[in-house]
Write the structure tokens for this entry.
Amino acid sequence: MATDTTTTTAGHQTNELKMRHRAMWASGDYPAVATEVISALGETLVAELDLQRGDRVLDVAAGSGNASVPAARVGAEVVAADLAPELFEAGRVFAAEQGVQLTWQEADAEALPFADNSFDVVMSCVGVMFAPDHQRSAAELVRVCRPGGRIGLISWTPGGFVGRMFATMKPYAPAPPPGAQPPPLWGDETHVRELFGDHADITAERRTLTVDRFQTPEEFRRFFKATYGPTIAVYKANAADPAAVAALDDGLDDLARDAMNHDGVMEWEYLLVTATVR
């Protein structure tokens, strides 16, 4: 039988990309980011979705359970799914500390291993936005959520602090694979509405997260340089170029300096989306 080499090559490239993504998020210490910097986001998303005891909830790209654990705490039956199961160990510790149980499952946001209509609520807290194929990911969120069920998303906006951080790193980052879309597009309401089309009724609101973890711009940069997978990956790609590393250091310092008030407090903008599946 003849082999379709185009399909084989595309499949290999997709698998390679997934492995790179898994390794990127497993590097550093993302649980530290989740607990020390953005912990309030998971609580916000769960509160906005008004979860009820017994709700079947899927947290897509759940990481170490920033939203999953608060959802389980209100009595929901939660599956925390992520491409990088290396993050689950910290999540299990977090869940045990909170006295809750949930299911942890390795899963690709673009090909979720769940049947149609499996969940009452599907959510993602700055997670699904990093899957390269936005349309495929959105279709999966809708597919696994029952008709009348709810989808809840928090995503960094393009013009907010994290969106500008990605723009600062972009000149130093390797070229993205063909078809990959920028993560902060999930923080653009128009883009999200186009992704879901007529499959869901959407409400969107821009909000800000107050971040007071860092006293100086340099402290912010050192923390993200050591803990945050995308930042680690960009520095790794430039490790042999001291001038590029120094320029990236300066760029991130300037970004944080511009965002900080005199007390070191920053406001990071995000888009909160809630949707009802038709």
